[in-house]
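Review box. Two proteins, two foldings.
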Amino acid sequence: MLLANLNKVTAEYAGQPVLKGVSFEISVGEKLGLIGANGAGKTTLLRILLGQEPPSGGTVTLASGTRVGYIPQYLGGDDNDLVTDWLLAEYTSITDRLHACEVQLARASPDAIDSAMSSYQSARDDYDRLDVDGAPDRAQKILDSLGLIGKEDQEVGSLSGGEKNVLSLARALLNEPDFLVLDEPGNHLDFMGLAWLEEYLVKFTGTVFIVSHNRHTLDRVVRGILSLEDGQVARYEGGYSTYRATKLRELIAQQADYSANQKRLAQLEALVKRLELTARARPSTKAGKRLRSRRSQLAREESQAVEKPTSGVSAIDAEFMTERTRSNIVLQVRNYSKSFDDLSLLENVDFDITSGERVAIVGPNGSGKTTLLRDIVAIGEWDDAVIRIGPSIRVGYAAQQQEILNGDRTILEEMMASPPESNETVAFALLRNFLFTREDLRKRVSELSGGERNRLQLAALMKLKPNFLILDEPTNHLDIPAREAVEDALSEYEGSILVVSHDRYFLDKIVNRVVELEDRDLVSFDGNFSEFFETRYGSLEGESGRVSTRGSDRKRGRVERTEQRSDVASLERRIEEAEEEKLELERRVGLAFENRDNREGRRFSRELERVSALLADLYEQWAVRA
């Protein structure tokens, strides 16, 4: 059954065409994702689908009686509103309208009674249709189920970014929608919140239409991808990974067609040139006719030529170069504690990173991840007793809020001032790799979007050539092609990485160790993020309240995970695996030094030290719990 239909929809923005005859359908029960580069027109398309703005041309049809729940990218309304008042604002408005119609009907003159009755009946129908009487109870149940217990009388502005996302979802669910439309719903959610939201959307029985740059969410939730490119929408079955594989196959096929077509055109051009020479040397009616015929053929085939294929990847050209370090110690943290007033974030934690390691720090929002990174950057040096940075380590830092940038400078001034200082030519060459034009150079940093500021930070890191990258949400505000370009560059990077990110695709490609910030401690896990998450949390089935990172549900989650870690059988399996890895590393160390490959020998030795330390920790846990 058809739920929505867009037919030849066009739209303009600032006089420029954004949508060029877009057509697609959404069936009841489908779960679709919309992707496209920043500025491609996704928000415009979303607003047209929701009826928030009319198209320049074409038609949009939504099945009669469809109840739409919309979760916007940014929460609207007054920050001073109480949570319950904000949640029930639509129902309050309907109640006020009904009361006004009742007063109007009671005071109506005989001539106006029919009009007043009609207005009253319309208001009453809306009141009954939306079950306004039951709205407060439904609101309370939804708040409880989404982990916002006790937030009813708080001001909206006091909520965290993740809690505001949950509040938007709660408002959308109040109407008991059969069509959920979400615009970047994962913004501000920590990894547990994202996992919970994905699980919820998978189990949602209605239709889902989601705009997102989060590739894991798209893979987990949707069964079809709508790709918006150059004003046109193409549909692909499956999640993001399937879409990407299909696009690559199409690119290869188009490349083959393009190459064959170019070869054919080259042959025709050579033939026309020979006929031109022949016609000039031996003019004749026959020669002229042949020449005109071939020219016409060449012009026709050029007009129908196969377009040169484009990969659809970002124009960003990132390459993070580094100078080799002789230090095995990149970072040593000893007895580090952090608290704000009565809130303790970390207590006496130890934490090491050795040369070449790629480490992610994960944990709930507000647990202290960004604070830890900032302290490492601000305090870390070789002579510090708590946070030691290796003596030959050059740190490059990209901040989540981009606070390290000077808002009063222009883009060019900021780039030239970032170390090492450089001239305009060098600065622009790097900025151009991150999509900045000459016209952009005089823009103030304070005027830039979040994505532009992130690109500026990354360009500065390319210039610095650090051997230790500290990255706090480096893919924030970047579209998918830009994220993939940054991932590719970091995959080739030879230095060490410490990163905070909620992008699971990014973490799986970049890191080889995950450190979880929990219960004011740091717990290390060897492997990528997916391996960490599966081992530590498994399925979220039956969970509620995971999206909110404050309150009793978070405490309950910590208790459950503590019980999981105490499982002796699990510890024994991990010990067995670590012992096997240790034996293999010992073999590789010996073989490398026998072959006089000192570089590989040192690398495997560092891995052996890490696994040996892990084993000692596992045996200690086993001795306590066995």
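Next protein.
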Amino acid sequence: MDEERNSLKDLQGCEAKEVEKDDISKLYLDSIANIKEGTIVKGKVVAITPKDVVVDIGYKSEGAISISEFQDPDTIKVGDEIEVYLESKEDDSGMVVLSKQKAERAVGWEMVISRYGEGDLVDGKITKKVKGGFMVDIGVEAFLPASLAASRAFGNLNQLIGQTFQFKIVKINKPRKNIVVSRRDALQQQKEEDKKKVFDALQKGAIVSGIVRNITDFGAFIELGAGIIGLLHITDMSWGRVSHPSEVLAIGDNVDVMVLDFDKDNMRISLGLKQKTQNPWETVDTKYAIGSKIKGTVVNLAPYGAFVELEKGVEGLLHISEVSWTKKYANPNELLAIGDRIEAVVLDVDKQARKISLGLKQLEANPWLDAETKYPVGTKVRGKIRNLTDYGAFVELEDGIDGLIHVSDISWTKRVGHPKDVMKKGEKIEAVVLAVDANNRRISLGIKQLTPDPWDEIALRYVQDTVLPGKITKVANFGLFVEIEKDLEGLVHISEIPLAEGEKLEEKFKVSDEVKAKILKVDSIQHKIGLSLKV
């Protein structure tokens, strides 16, 4: 009985072992069936050779992966579990075909497309140059066209290989698992973001540092960082006179400037340099009192006067009329030159308009103050003819004081067309003082007044209707001037000239023609004689 029982147990044990073996075989076959080509599977490193890493993925054979597919082959050791890509379950030699790089790419692709989309920024390393551009490792290989690798001003693109940058994803092709990136767009986006940060931090009145990038006639362009350029206008460089910005700044200069105004929308910034210091014009009314004497440097000359720098940023105008009491200058450069150090008197201060009027002649006594006493009306004077004009002659009575002889005061009787007809420049003559205007610095002189007015005697001498010979001195469209004695002329109006129908005055009479004229009227008040040829 016991033997039967033992035999039965042995039989039952054998049956159990057979069942267990069948189950294991079934499980093994099921696991092999679940391994599919084109998927990522886990495997264990079972051996490492100088060329390959042998991996067991639980299949009937192992696979060898080139050691070059591992980024850090020195860290791989037997027993490590790794993820690999199953390309094929069996090659010609009966081994499975595995790839570590393809597994990483597949994992990287899923990771990248799950985290990033088109337009996003991603870090990556440029690994190699290919046709038309470069390959970039961003967790998966992406293509960087050469045209999008850098800004236009960049030099040799090959120097980018091996470097890590930020890129912008411009295109994702999921079916083909292709990604196109742009470093240029990333740089531009970063630049715009940096600009926004700078503008967000700007405040009017703040002092910022920058570099002079360009200089023009109207100002200088200052780079404040992040590619932001501000304009420093020439008028905001100095409180004083600046002829050209290059007098103050040079390209490449580091300069601290004040933010005067900015426009975030158009990204424009107005900068100031002079505003860092106090406006010197705020205290000019107390520093330069009217009537006080000052010293300054001539910094500019104009036809109307000289600009004198009193201190940095403060200039006064010395008008040409305030240079001398006596001499008349056509241009201030006849007396002054740029760089001259001079003394002057403050005549007026306009703080609001930033104008200071200066005088040079006020340092000396005004010789015209006693002109009325020195040259009373009726006094006979002698002087040299300094200048001749159409309307008269200027006679120098003393240094800086001239008198004017008007053309009408040269002769009682002679008709004088121009002073040069009867006198010469440099000639010394005698005259009578007719009027003195010290305020306007004018003295009127006369020559004819040296002798009595002869017109009362002329009126007695030339009785109305008297006929006498004469000589034509001028033919005018309104009549003839006829000399009836030396330096004495009368006018024959055209109405008193007998002319045939259609006959013209200038055709019938010529200068120097002798005629007989009749006295019509002698006006001793107006100094005129009326004649007639109708005798």
